[in-house]
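This part of the workshop introduces the protein records we will be handling. Getting from the letters to the tokens is the skill we practise here. The record below serves as our worked example for the rest of this section.

…
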Amino acid sequence: MSDCYLPRLGGIEVQVDDLAHHLREAGHDVRVATATPGPETPGVVRLLPPVRLPVPINPWAGADLRDLMAQAEVVHVHLGIVAPFASMAATRATRMGLPTVVTWHSMFGALTPLLRYAEPWRRWVRGGAVPTAVGRAAADQVERATGSVAPVQVLPNGIEVADWAAPAPPPGGGPVQVACAIRFARRKRPLAVLDMVHRMRDELAGEVDVQVVVAGDGPLLAPMREVVRRQGWADWLHLPGRLPRPELARRYHHSHLYLSPARLESFGIAALEARTAGLPVAGLEGSGIGEFVEDGVSGVLAPDDDALVTRVVELVRDRPLLDRIAGHNRTTPPAQAWPAVVEATVSTYEQARGRRAAAPRD
């Protein structure tokens, strides 16, 4: 169950599709229910509203959700920051006595004070739903909001290691190539990326040439391109837009470092892709990338932007350390490979079935 799904492109949309695909490959019968319009797709049920709405919601979906979920052995609900369709599914599933898993995919940032009104979440958990989140930081937020009715488990996003694994180290010599892939939206801090990479180049001027590629799309892409043009940075800072996965992997294989600027990152799938491609990841402490980035082993972590700039400059100057971290990442697959994530997901489904059998109905 997910408000947002393909053909919309985003973290939840792609992860839900990938999870469904890998569960089917493991022999499970999976149907994705969504309020997102799109083409007819096998295994996808689009419960669309009777009138056209500007966002993927459907307040009239209750009866259809009930009929669809009545056929399910387990209901897996995926929640973003605002998810009325998925929330309706969670409420109905627990009322129907169905085994239910709820996964939170987002950090709440400025909306955190509103979590005091998360009584529906507490009802789901008291009703037997298994609460999960894609990372420990997000899980801690949900635990605080639900008053620790039940511990929130980490059920991470997954990655197809073979799609990203680097065949060899990047070519030696030449500039240091820094990569980043983000949605160009305020929450993802694209302006902070431009500021940090400019400061890095200034500090390394005369020592190392730094070239930067920031891939991705979003409402701030055009303004950011205009900033790059006005500042005269186009010879070293490249904003190619959204790249297909194979092209993004190819870029990573020719890069030396990945910069992750987000503070409100519940997991950080883009950073995991870069880490799987062999790139040292530089990011902020307290975000979801701590699930797979160990400071000094698979990347560097810092408490704020200024410290992150300093850590990256130090890492670029210390080429043996940069190469050692890259070598570790190329030869050590992350724990979030899809076979392990599917196994953890199915285990959580079995837990939900056991918990539901013992829980009173709401």
User: Anything to note?
Assistant: The two ends are 20 Å apart (CA to CA). The mean pLDDT is 93.
